[in-house]
């Protein structure tokens, strides 16, 4: 597996994030640009916000939000991931 040099700004957990900001932040981790978020991509995203147990939490996040069971989060399932991020990761995500 190649290591890519990605520069991604870390997100503070202290402030609110809008739904659009969350989606844009998440898109930065779609390394293969397929429009879906895999478990590994979600784990990388979680690491930038200094979440502990990223492997376990990313697996749980996919299970929580993946409505069609394909193992990925697509645009139609992001709302489930937002719900998971608020309930289980303590992120503050607001509608506007």
UniProtKB/TrEMBL annotation:
What InterPro entries does the entry give? Centrin_CML-like (IPR050145), EF-hand-dom_pair (IPR011992), EF_Hand_1_Ca_BS (IPR018247), EF_hand_dom (IPR002048)
Q: Which residues cross the membrane?
A: none
Q: What is this protein called?
A: EF-hand domain-containing protein
Domain called EF-hand: residue spans: 17-52
Identify the coding gene. Answer: LOC100821051
Chain segments annotated as coiled-coil in the UniProt record: none
| GO CC annotations on file | cytoplasm
For this chain, one GO molecular function annotation is: calcium ion binding
Note the Pfam families from the entry. Answer: EF-hand_1, EF-hand_5
SMART domains (UniProt xref): EFh
* Alphabetically ordered keywords of this record: Calcium, Repeat
């Amino acid at each position: 597996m190649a290591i890519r040099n990605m520069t991604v700004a870390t997100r503070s957990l202290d402030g609110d994030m809008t739904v659009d900001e969350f989606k844009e932040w998440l898109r930065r981790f779609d390394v293969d640009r397929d429009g879906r978020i895999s478990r590994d991509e979600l784990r990388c995203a979680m690491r930038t916000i200094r979440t502990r147990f990223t492997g376990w939490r990313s697996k749980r996040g996919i299970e929580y939000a993946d409505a069609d069971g394909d193992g990925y989060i697509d645009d139609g399932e992001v709302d489930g991931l937002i719900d998971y991020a608020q309930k289980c990761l303590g992120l503050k995500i607001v509608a506007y």
